[in-house]
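Regression check, adenosine-5'-triphosphate case 595:
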Amino acid sequence: MTASLQKTQVDLAGLMRVLGEALYSTPFVAIRELVQNGHDSCTRRAKESTEPFEPKIQVRTRPGELIIEDNGAGLTLEEIHTYLATVGRGYTRTLREKGGGDDLIGYFGLGFLSAFAISHRVEFWTCSFQAPGLAHRFVSVSGESYSVVVAANRAVGTQVRLFLKDEMPMLGDPAIVETWLRKYCCLLKHPVALNGGVAVNAEPPPWRRQSELSDLRYKTLSLAFARHFENVFDPIATIPVNRADYAVQGMLWIQDGGSFASSDNRNLSVFVRGMLIGEDERNLLPRWAGFVGGVIESTLLQPTASRESLRNDDAYEFIAGVLQQALVSGLRQIAESDPASWRRILSRHNESLLAAALVDATLFKLVGDDVTVRTTEGDFTMPALLERCNGTVYLSYEERAGVESMLLKALKQPIVLGCRFAAGPFCARYAQAHGAPIVVLGTDTGAETLFRPSDLARDEIAVLEACFFAADRDVLVRQFDPPFLPFAVLTNPEAEIRRRLESDEADRRIGQAVLGLARQFTAGIAQQKLAKVYVNAANPVIRELLQLSNERRTQAVAALQPLLSLCADARGTPDMERALTDFGNALLTLLRDGP
Ligand SMILES: Nc1ncnc2c1ncn2[C@@H]1O[C@H](COP(=O)(O)OP(=O)(O)OP(=O)(O)O)[C@@H](O)[C@H]1O
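Current build output:
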C-alpha cells in the first residue's frame, strides 16, 4: 500500500496564541515590534520613492490606547493581504531575499502579532506611496480574522491604533512607554518621538560621530553614554569598538567598583540594525572580563525569532573574538595614554586582572608588571618583589606561618600568600617568564633552598648531630639566615597526626568507629620522625660549641636544650615554665663550673 501524502493541519487559534503571547518574554516588546515596522516602512519609502520626505515615527499614548504612526511607505490593499495579514510573511524578508533589505530590521513576518497580545482590537490605517489618495483600514480583534475597507483619505504612511486589554493599562502610560522607547530605540536611524516631544534617539551614539568630535569631547560623550547604560557602576574609562570591516561598532567600559576574581558584572547591550536585541549578552565578552560593560551594534549577529536574544552561530563566536581583542588593546591604550585611569583600573580590579592574565597571554604581558600580589610584608608588584628578594620568589600555600616563613619574616623577605586566588600560578608564570627561581615553602625543595649545606667538616657535623640527638627528631646541620638563630625546627604534620591518633589519649577522646577509620588511614603514613631540627652552622654559639671540651660542650648543650624544646616540642603546647627552669639551672651549672 502506498502511503498517501496528507496536508498538516494548523490550529490557527492555538498558533496565534503561542506566537502572540508566548513568543515574547514581556508585553512591552509590542512597542518595539510596532516601532520597528514603522521604521522599516520609512526605510522602504526612502529607497523606493522618488519623492523627498523626512522619515518620522510618532508614538502616542492615551488612557487605554497606544498609537504608533509613521510616514513610511504604507501598504496597498494587495500588500495588506499578502504581508500584513499573512503570518510568517513580510515585505521585509521579500526585499532581503531580492538582496535589497540590508538595513531593514524585520525578517520573520511575526512581529505584528505581538499587537494582539496587548490589545483587544487593532486598527491599521494606511495609505501607500504607490497609490496616494487611496487609504485603507484593516481591523482585527484577535489576529485570526480581519476586515479591510477603503478609508477616508490620509497622508502616505500608517497609523496603528491599539485598544489595550484591561490588564495592559501600563502601555497607555507615557512615562512607562518613554522608558521602553528610550531603551529599544536609542540607536535607530529615523527619529522616534513620544507624544510630539523631542525624538528619543535625537542624539546619535558617540561612535557614529567620532570623526566630527575632538578627542576630549568624544571621551566626555562616551562616558556619559556608558553611564546611561551601566546600571550599577560608574564607568572609569571607555574603550572603542570600531571594526567596520567586521560590521561591529560601539564601546566597552571598565566599571568603577572593586571586583574579585570571581565577580561577574559583565553586561553587554546588543543592537542589530539599530534595534535593541538584548541587554545582557555577557557571553560575548571574555569570561575573565567580570568588570566590563558595553554597548555594540552589529549587522553580523542574527536575532532569534522573538528578537530578544541572539543565535549562537559562527558570527557570534567571531564577534566574541573581536570584542576580546578590542578589550585587550583598549586596556593597553589606557595604560599607555591615561595613567590616572589605568591606576584606578588596577586598584579596583587587581584580583580579576591577576586571574585574567593567566588565561590571556597578551593581557599577561600588559598587566604582569603592574598587578600586585599579597605577601606577608604587604602588597607587591612582581618587579618590586623580585628586587626585594634578590631575584627569588618565596611562595607559601600554608594558612599559618611555619618556621621557614618565620625565618624569612625575620629577614623581612616578603612571602607571597599562595592561597589567595590565582596568586600561586601567577607568580609561577611570572617567575618562569623572568627566569627567577621560585621557592615554595613547606616543601622539601623549598627547605633545601633555605637550609643550605654547611661549610663544616664531617667530624664537626657529627659532633653537632650527636649534641642535639633525640629519638623522635632528625638533626640536620645546615647553614641559614638569619645567622643569629642557633636552630630552626620543622615539625612533620603527618607524623604528628599519626602520633596523636595512636596515643592512648585518643582511645579515650575519639569514638572507636571514627578512630578505627582514622588509624586505617594513618597506617598508610610511613613511620617518620616528628620533627627536623636544623642546626645553624652559621650561628656563632653553635660554632663555639665545637671549640669546647666534651664536658663543657655537654653543659652548654644542656643549657640550649630547653630553648630547643620550646620550638621542637611537637607534642603540643610547650611547657614554658619547665623550659625556663631547666635553662636557668643549666646556666647556673655553666657559671659555677666556668673557667
Ligand atoms: N507600519 C507599517 N507600514 C508598512 N508596512 C507594515 C507596517 N507594519 C507591518 N507592515 C507589513 O507587514 C509585514 C509583517 O509585519 P511583521 O511585523 O509581522 O513582520 P516583519 O516586520 O516583516 O518581521 P519580524 O517578525 O522580524 O518583525 C511587514 O513585513 C510589512 O510588510
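Comparison notes: Residues 206-346 form a domain with the Ribosomal Protein S5; domain 2 fold (CATH 3.30.230.80). The mean pLDDT is 87. No diff flagged against the previous build.
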